[in-house]
Amino acid sequence: MIAVVVPLKSFDLAKGRLSEVLEPSERSDLAKKMATGVLAAADGLPKWVVCGDPNVSSWALSNGAGVIWREPKGLNNAVAAGVQWCATEGHERVIIAHGDLPFATDLTWLAGRSEDVVIVTDRRKDGSNVVVVPTSQRFVFQYGPGSAAKHAAEAKRLGLSWIILEDEQLGWDVDVPEDLQGLAE
Known about the structure:
The protein is α/β, with parallel strands linked by helices. The chain is built from five helices and seven strands, in the order βαβαβαβββαβα. The protein has a seven-stranded mixed beta sheet with strand order 3-2-1-4-6-5-7, sandwiched between helices.
């Protein structure tokens, strides 16, 4: 059984690197819109949002997701907590999808991959926009610059089969002002 985990911080604090081009309310609206699309892309699978914000929690519940409440302690810790929670709920694998994927339309196809670890890289072939891992391992997450290679190295360290995939929809994330240009096209 597989579940989807989406780590989210407060919508009011999201996308700070876009502050030079978007007002706080615009950043919040954009973050919520993208995250709503990511949850919709997980329809048909159990889905959980890891958060420490009451507004995000209410939003998640209203969008058909369960909530894993965690105080903000960084992305890696949030993801690890989500995977651990899913393991206790009986899920054997977890799809970790970031909430800033504006073109995400389907995450379910990842459930059928045979590799132990699947890494869907960002369009720059550097980051890990979506990662699929087994819950039975103590996978150490290393989000940030070079995370795709770091996650592949972690899979290798654990003796797990792995693959890095490129996907046009899942590869597009919104982190910096230049990323917004692709949304208008």
